[in-house]
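Handout, section B. The chain below has 138 residues.
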Amino acid sequence: MHELPQIRFKPIHPYAWLWEPLEADPAFVLRPMFGGKAAYLDDKLQLYFTAKEEPWRGVLACTDRAHHSALLAEFSDLAPHPILPKWLYLSETADSFEKTAERLVALVCHRDPRLGVASQTRKRRGRAGATRHHSAPS
């Protein structure tokens, strides 16, 4: 009897439903980052989705500190992330996690200037000493 090959299914990220509205935009890129998923739009890091243990279980809104007060006033469930305080954190345990997360995605879709940070480029030397630019670490 022949043994059937094992098929491995890639698990679906628990927050994949959140970035689905962004997928139709040609400027949208989703990249793995530190065990989570980083959502880019127009070469700016917008949102980071992470499903690990707290405080890494929810959505991080990537923004400049200058926009914190306006976003915190609008979204009561957001708070500066305890480890990355430059970004705002929406914990999965928040009372209105789904609603707030959907609203953050809608802001990104509408290119709200309060969200998004320019991604840092890394330079690597090629064999001939050429410099290549990468829009984000993988």
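Note. Helices lie at 16-19, 68-74, 97-109. Compare this with the example in section A.
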